[in-house]
Amino acid sequence: MKQPSNRRKMIKHILTGSAVVAATPFVPSIASSVAINKKLKGNINHSVCKWCFDGISLEDLSIAAKKIGITAIDLVGPSGWETLKKHGLDSSMCNGAEISLVKGWNDPQYHTTLIESYTKHIDLVADAGYKNLICFSGNRNGMDDMVGLKNCVAGLKQIMPHAEKRGVIIHMELLNSKVDHKDYMCDKSAWGVELCKQLGSPNFKLLYDIYHMQVDEGDVIHTIQQHHQYFGHYHTAGVPGRNEIDETQELNYPAIMRAIVATGFKGYVAQEFIPRAANKLDSLNKAVRICDV
Predict the structure, then answer these.
(1) Less Cβ around it within 10 Å: N or C end of the chain?
(2) CATH code for the domain in which residue 278 is found
(3) Is residue 181 within 8 Å of 101, Cβ to Cβ?
C-alpha cells in the first residue's frame, strides 16, 4: 500500500490529465490468470479507476476489463478516449477540467479558470459521446462551510446551463477529510446534498465514494436509501486501508450493492481500491464478482 501522501500526488497527477500512461509491458500470464467463472448478472454497471492499477497500461487494462465483464473505465481524460473506444468501453467518469483536488469551486479566485475549462470539457465530453465529468469542492483553508457552499453555487451556476444543453452531468466527489484528504470541504453527504438542492439542476450530482464516506460518516446504506436521487456515480474500496473489498475489511459490499440496485440506479459503480495482491487483475475480478448482486 502506498503512503497517503504518495496517493494524493498520484491522483492529482492523473486527474489533471497530465500523467503519461505507464509503459510497463503487459505480462500475458497476468491476464490469463483472471478466472472468469460465469457471466455477470447485469444489475450493476461495472467500471474501474485506471489510477489504481499503476504498471498496467490503459490498453492492457482495457483488454483485461473486457474479459472480466467491466464495461467502462473511470477517470480517463481526452487523451485516453481513443483507446477506450477501440475496445468498446465507456469513459464512465471523465476528467481533465479540474485544477486539482484542493483548488476547487468553493474559492471564487478559481472560478474564471474553472468556468473556462469546464465549458471546454463539457463540449469535449459531449462530442465524444460521454456524459459524466468530475469536479471538486477544494479545501477549506479556513473558510466556513456555508460560505464555501454559497461560492460553489455561484460558480457552478455559470456552467450548468451549458452542461444541461449538452447533456453532460457534473459530479462533485465526496472525499474524506479524516485520513486521505485533510481539509477537503465536500466531506459529508449532507453538505453535498444541500449543494445539489441549491443548484437545482438535474445535471449536477454527487459522486458517492463508499470508502470515503464510511471513513468520514458511516451509515452508508441508510444514506444511499435516503439520498440516492442525488448520487450519480459510486466508487468502492476496502475500509480500513483502501485496499481489496474482501473479507479483510469492514464493509459488506454485497449488501451495499443490493441497496444501490433497489434504488433503481442505472449508472456505474467503479472499483477504486489499491490492490495489495501480487496479481492485481485477479483482485479486480474478485471485486467485481463481490459487487455483482
Answers:
(1) N
(2) 3.20.20.150
(3) yes
Question: Does residue 276 fall inside a structural domain?
Answer: yes
Q: What angle do CA 213, 228, 115 make, to 5 degrees?
A: 75
What percent of the chain is helix, strand and coil (3-state, nearest 5)? Answer: 45, 15, 40
Residue 3 lies in a domain: no
Residue type, position 288, single letter: V
Count other C-beta atoms under 10 Å from residue 55's C-beta: 13
DSSP 139: B
Per-residue pLDDT reduced to its tens digit, 59-78: 999 999 999 999 999 999 99
SS3 state at 14: helix
Task: Give the position of cell 464555501.
Answer: 148
Q: Give a yes or no: residue 24 inside a domain.
A: no
Residue 262 identity (one-letter amino acid): A
- The yes-or-no verdict on residue 32 having pLDDT over 90 is no
The answer as to whether 63 is a domain residue is: yes
Task: Count the domains in the chain.
Answer: 1
List the domain range (segments joined by +) for residue 166: 44-291
Here the cell at position 58 is 490503459
* 277 has a pLDDT exceeding 60: yes
Asked if residue 195 lies in contact with residue 171, where contact means CB atoms within 8 angstroms, the answer is: no
Q: CA–CA distance from 148 to each of 102, 136, 171, 186, 223 (Å)?
A: 13, 12, 17, 9, 23
Whether pTM > 0.85 for this model: the answer is: yes
